[in-house]
Amino acid sequence: MTALILHPAIRKRIDSYTDLVPAKLHAFWPHVETQFVNNLLNDGYMASHKQFFSPQQHRFVGFWHFSRDRIPADMAIPETALYSLGDDMTAELATWIAKSRPQDNEKKGAGGFTVNLNITKTGESPPARSFFFEAWMSSNTDKTAVIEAAVFDAETNVKLIVVSFDMSIKKSGIATGAEHTVPSPLLDAPDAESLSKAELATLSRLMDFLPHNSVTTDRGALSRSTKCLVTTLGFGPNLTGPVIYIHGGVLGTVLYNAAAMLFQLLTGKDPNAVNWDITYKSPVPIESIDNVITAQVKSESTQSVTIFSKIMRGSKVFTTLTTVFSLGKLEVEQSNYRICISHA
What we know:
Elements: H1 8-15, E1 21-22, H2 36-42, E2 46-54, E3 59-66, H3 79-100, H4 102-108, E4 111-121, E5 130-140, E6 144-153, E7 159-170, E8 193-194, H5 197-203, E9 215-216, E10 220-223, E11 228-235, H6 248-267, E12 273-280, E13 291-300, E14 304-313, E15 316-326, E16 337-343
Parallel strand pairs: 7-16
Antiparallel strand pairs: 1-2, 2-3, 3-5, 4-7, 4-12, 5-6, 6-7, 6-16, 8-10, 9-11, 10-11, 11-13, 12-15, 13-14, 14-15
Helix pairs in contact: 3-4, 3-6
């Protein structure tokens, strides 16, 4: 951990631990070639991913280091990348804690999926490529466990986001219950206008530095009178979490793309999101097509615009996102993020 340039406050946090053991990425997960985070590493966008477990304190500390060669220096790592990694990290921490407690391991199992997460931006550090995280379980019952954590720019000690994950842990697989029908029409509004090819390409971007063909879009429309945007999406391979469903961070990203584009088209301003609230109702299988995303303004004020977006197929809603966009300057809060894991 000493190879990176670390802020003294972060080095002090690391030095306070005396029992850290390496926690291999996805050590207790089945090996799947399509895992999204693994492919960030394999494709060279992440230079390294290191995490360590404290058996005495039941904590995780570690680093996410993005490539300075593959990612342009003037491009900030998006919050969606950080909470995608955080989603994996918290699930793994819960498993490591369960493995260190035989009674928990027996009754809770190791499978799980996120059902809700809430992200609040607390600071900005556009040049950051190295991120430090620290996570710990603060309470635990038969049905829930609360994990609190913080993510920082490792070199400046700036706290970047706070996130709350609510995860359901199950011993069996997850049934999707998806309806294999295609909604119609895309947008029933008299002023509906088709989105351009460039706008459709923007909607399909997972992160500014990833290839364009992981997600495909071929149709999209905007209604300024109803303040609504609709598009269709298809998901490619290499986008899974620990099982055969689309990674939660990927779903959150495409929903945010739609909300951000709607905000920009309606206001003419660059999107400055300060809060995201995502609910995962049912997982989306990999390589699924004919998914539909809608985004619509929920409320407006002189200081912010709130947009609600969802991904669905037929009448089946998979994931929803409520995004708050600031119309002014970001007010930085200093707080940790809190993760709630539900053992169903």
